[in-house]
Amino acid sequence: MIIDNKDKIYIKDILISSFKLQEKNANKIINQLYEAFSCKCNIFFYNLKYSLHFKYNSKYSNKILEVCINIFIYFISNPKYRYERNELENFFYNFLEIVFIDSIKYNKRIEHQRDTVQQVLQHTSKKLNNILKTQELMIANISHDMRTSLNAISGHLSLIDIDKIKDIKLKSNIEKALSSSNMLNSLVTDILDISKINAGELEIYEQYFWLDELLIEAIDSIHINIDKKPIKLKVDIDIIAYRLFGDYKHILEIIINLLSNAIKYTDIGFIFLIVKVTNKTKQNIDIEFEIKDTGIGISEKDIDTIFNPYTRINDDVQGVGLGLHISSKLLNTLGGKLRVQSDIGEGSKFSFNLSFKKEKLKKKSIKRKKIYYFNNIDNDRKKMKIFKKLGAKVQYFDNKIKFTTKLLSLKGKKPDIVCIKTNREHYIEIDTLLLHLKKDKGYNKSYFIADGVDNKIPLNNFDKMNEYITPLSTYINPKIDNKLHNKKSINIKPIYILSVDDIDTNLELLKAFILKQYPNAIIDLAHGGYEAIGMFKIRKYDIIFIDLKMPGLNGFELLDRLYDIRDIQATYALSADVYKSTYKKVEKSKFKGLLEKPFNIELIYNVIEKVIYEKNSKEDI
Q1: How many other β-carbons are positioned within 10 Å of the β-carbon of residue 24?
Q2: Annotation: CATH topology of 496-615
Q3: Predicted local distance difference test score (pLDDT) of residue 117
Q4: Does 496-615 match 363-476 at the fold level?
Q5: Residue 481's pLDDT is what?
Q6: Cα distances (Å, whole numbers) of residue 616 to 147, 295, 568
Q7: What are phi and psi of 241, to 5 degrees?
Q8: How many CB atoms lie within 10 A of CB 567?
Q9: In 3D, which of 298, 291, 280 has the Cα closest to residue 244?
Q10: Could you tell me which of 277, 289, 265 has the C-alpha nearest to residue 214?
Q11: Once rounded to an integer, what is the mean pLDDT over residues 83-93?
């Protein structure tokens, strides 16, 4: 079929106006169209087909169909092409078959394949979810049993007063057993964290907390490892005069991991813990945390893989290589990023930044408190300036004779808090003086703090000893501190405690821990839910500790039964299962909180101290 020039111009005008083509491209299409009319080549149809496929636009498809039909009608109705009618009809059939019908068939096949793939993916996803649930259940059950056993091992070991053991070999064996149980507990926690992170089950526990308290807890947890090596911990921490809102538990875990890592790879020298405020507004505060060491350092090659799981740069060091990986993942979840700088033979620096909401320190919590501050070591008065600004009456001393004379000769109101920062010799002298001062009734209400004191110095009459920093909360509310449970002469009302667990070891261990600090506490032990209900009907309890995983009535069911009888002042869940789902269930229940196993005995003491303080708040403690 031969198309004359006039008709070629007609087609070209249609193509240019309909699709806004350049003349060069329009001529190219006309040549392909001519070959298609002559049945010489189908390239015209396939170009259209692929154009429709990639454009994937219904308006464009309709336009193509409309233009092709108009061209076909133009030729089929033109008398000069009456002998080419068969060629024109073949052209149009090929156009419909290749461009549209084939495309529809292809789309149908793709749609069917997509449905098949979706079904396969749904089935695979269901299987994977079942595997993950099985894995989570298996890890939860294993961790529950391991933590229960660890609770018994570490608990009974910690009840032993090592300082009273005279047999050096026995003392060494007990210390090794304690160290090993702590290491095993850390490993179980790491494995649980990894499984939670991988399953998307990582819990965020946001609460208000004092940052200095968190840092002291981190230092205390690694102090025993520092003492084993000729290394010294140095701290440089900005004073932050308000509580922060954030994930206390995981920030503590990150700092402990980084400090522990620094100790592992440092044989001699220093570990530095540096905490600095980088920015603050009325509502928020940005803080940078740094942990530096003078250890073996990390090569450039190892830095690239240091945050991978199960990575260790020295096979002689204990551990499975999860600490840095977990810390990095936790920081990502909290909105931070773990950074590292290191040089071989010079040491390493790990750092991260976090942003917190802040709770301003209330003036009434410190206003009108009388504070004496004796410091003959340095001229650091930052903390006292904060208290003075908030309305406390602060008096400074830097001369020991003037300070002791003031204490001995003072008449009238005695100071609420006396903070002392001095050298070893003066600490021992002042400790002896305190024994005399406390015979004076006026000083029975005073709270004596040894700030920056070496924990090896034998002091017996201070109410609080801190080797690195004294938390601001100690000044704000010293009554809820060691003073409350270490002083034998304090007259408190009896405190009644009910502990419910199906495992005898857990019951006996919790009782031993409580009686060690609160010998006057009355503790009832119930071996299951039904026994607990019977005891609860007979006696009113100030605190109830309930294990969640028990046969018969589980912890949640028991709590509902107890509340059906009467309201309870304080009930706490105990569990070795620390998955997100467990915490959510506890939050939705009437429990006041969840305490993990193995027991963090300080948390249990804090719970008891709070209840005692509330119960005796009307008395003069």
Answers
A1: 7
A2: Rossmann fold (3.40.50)
A3: 79
A4: yes
A5: 42
A6: 35, 50, 18
A7: -90, 35
A8: 7
A9: 280
A10: 289
A11: 74
If you write DSSP's letter for every residue of 199-253 in order, what string do you get? HT-----EEEE-HHHHHHHHHHHHHHHHHTTTEEEEEEE----EEEEEEHHHHHH
Structure tokens at 196: 């939670």
CA distances from 146 to 376, 501, 588 (A): 50, 16, 27
Burial class (CB in 10 A: 0-12, 13-18, 19+), 442: middle
Q: Which fold has domain 203-360?
A: Heat Shock Protein 90 (3.30.565)
Residues 293, 295, 301, 302, CA torsion sign: negative
Phi, psi of 133 (to 5 degrees): -65, -40
- Candidates 573, 614, 601, 596; CA nearest to 516 is 601
For residue 155, what are the CA distances in angstroms to 133, 149, 399, 511, 528? 31, 10, 45, 11, 21
Q: Residue 412 has what pLDDT?
A: 85
pLDDT in tens, 415-468: 989 999 998 888 999 988 988 888 776 788 888 999 888 777 888 888 888 888
Q: What is the pLDDT, as a whole number, of residue 244?
A: 93
Q: Which class does domain 363-476 fall in?
A: alpha beta
The average confidence (pLDDT) of the chain is 81
Distance CA 229, CA 324 (A): 22
Burial label for 493, CB within 10 Å (0-12, 13-18, 19+), is exposed
Please, which pLDDT band fits residue 537 given cuts at 50, 70 and 90?
Answer: very high
Sign of the CA dihedral 453, 456, 462, 468? positive
Token pair 């900005």: residue:
238
Domain-wise residue ranges, the chain: 1-164, 203-360, 363-476, 496-615
- 458 preceded by a cis bond (ω within 30 of 0): no
